[in-house]
TrEMBL record:
Family to which this protein belongs: Belongs to the ABC transporter superfamily.
Protein name: Cell division ATP-binding protein FtsE
Molecular function GO labels: ATP binding
Subcellular localization(s) per the UniProt record: Cell membrane
Organism in which the protein naturally occurs: Fodinibius salicampi
Residue ranges of every copy of the ABC transporter domain listed in the record: 7-227
Gene: ftsE
Its biological purpose: Part of the ABC transporter FtsEX involved in cellular division. Important for assembly or stability of the septal ring.
Record membrane topology: Peripheral membrane protein
Length: 227
C-alpha cells in the first residue's frame, strides 16, 4: 500500500450464495481524503464497509486498511484494526442508561486507557462536537442531531485515522444535517480520512467530494452534479 492511502481494495470480489455483490473492485482512499459511497439499496454498500472493518472477508482479492492486511490478518488483530477506525453507524446506538460522558468514556475503557487520559480526551472530543455542556445528560434528553454528534465524538475518542460513516445525516432535518456535515469537514480538515455512505444527494451536491457509485458489482466515479 502506498503511504498516501489509508484504504486499498485490490480486485475484490464478494459473492453471497450465487449473487456476486462486488466484482473485482479496485478502490483507494487517500490519506486525509473525504469520499462518498453511493448506490441503490442492495448495491453492496454495507458489504463494502464490512470488508473495511473485517466483518467480511473477500472471496478473492485483497483489502488493506491503515497498516493492516485485512484479508490475511488473524482474528486476534481485529480489535486493533477497529481502533484505527472511527465508526459512525446507525445501528451502533448509544447506551440509553449511561450519560453522554459515560458513553464516550466507555469506548476508551475497553482499550485499557488510563483514567486521567480518558477524562481529558472525553472532554476534548465532546468539545470538538460542541456538546461539553450536555455531558451529564442521558442520550434520550438529546435531539437526533445531538445524538449523532455524540456518536461522532465516541468514534473519535481513540484517535482513529479513518472515519467510516453510514448515512450520518439519515433521519435528520436539513439544519441538523448541515451541522453534522460541517463537523465531518472539520474532522477531515484535521487530517482524518472520511468515507461516507449516503443516499442524501442534496448533501453530496452541497458538500462536494469524490463520489463513488456501486452498481452491478462495479464501482465508478460520478459527477455529483449529475446525481
Ligand atoms: N449475509 C448475506 N447473505 C446473503 N446475501 C446477503 C448477505 N448480506 C447481504 N446480502 C445481499 O447482498 C446484496 C448487497 O447487500 P448490502 O447490504 O451490501 O447492500 P447495501 O447497498 O448496503 O443496501 P442498503 O442500502 O439497502 O443497506 C443484497 O442483495 C443483499 O440481500
Amino acid at each position: 500500500m502506498s503511504k498516501h492511502s489509508v484504504i486499498d481494495f485490490n480486485n475484490v470480489t464478494v459473492t453471497y450464495d450465487r449473487q456476486t455483490v462486488l466484482e473485482k473492485v479496485n478502490f483507494t482512499l487517500g490519506n486525509g481524503e473525504f469520499a462518498y459511497l453511493i448506490g441503490q439499496t442492495g448495491a453492496g454498500k454495507s458489504s463494502f464497509l464490512r470488508l473495511i472493518y473485517r466483518d467480511l472477508v473477500p472471496d478473492t482479492g485483497h483489502v488493506q486498511v491503515a497498516d493492516y492486511n485485512v484479508t490475511t490478518m488473524s482474528k486476534k488483530e481485529v480489535p486493533y484494526l477497529r481502533r484505527r477506525l472511527g465508526i459512525v453507524f446507525q445501528d451502533f446506538q448509544l447506551l440509553p442508561d449511561r450519560t453522554v460522558y459515560e458513553n464516550v468514556a466507555f469506548s476508551m475503557q475497553v482499550t485499557g486507557a488510563k483514567n486521567s487520559y480518558i477524562k481529558q480526551r472525553v472532554l476534548e472530543v465532546l468539545g470538538m462536537v460542541g456538546l461539553s455542556h450536555k455531558r451529564k445528560n442521558m442520550p434520550n434528553d438529546l435531539s437526533g442531531g445531538e445524538k449523532q454528534r455524540v456518536v461522532i465524538a465516541r468514534s473519535l475518542a481513540n484517535e482513529p485515522r479513518i472515519l467510516l460513516a453510514d448515512e450520518p445525516t439519515g433521519n435528520l432535518d436539513p439544519e441538523a444535517s448541515a451541522s453534522i456535515m460541517e463537523l465531518l469537514e472539520r474532522i477531515n480538515n484535521r487530517g482524518m480520512a472520511v468515507l461516507m455512505v449516503t443516499h442524501d444527494y442534496d448533501t453530496v451536491k452541497q458538500y462536494p467530494y469524490r463520489t463513488l457509485k456501486l452498481k452491478n458489482g462495479r464501482i465508478s466515479e460520478v459527477n455529483a452534479k449529475e446525481l
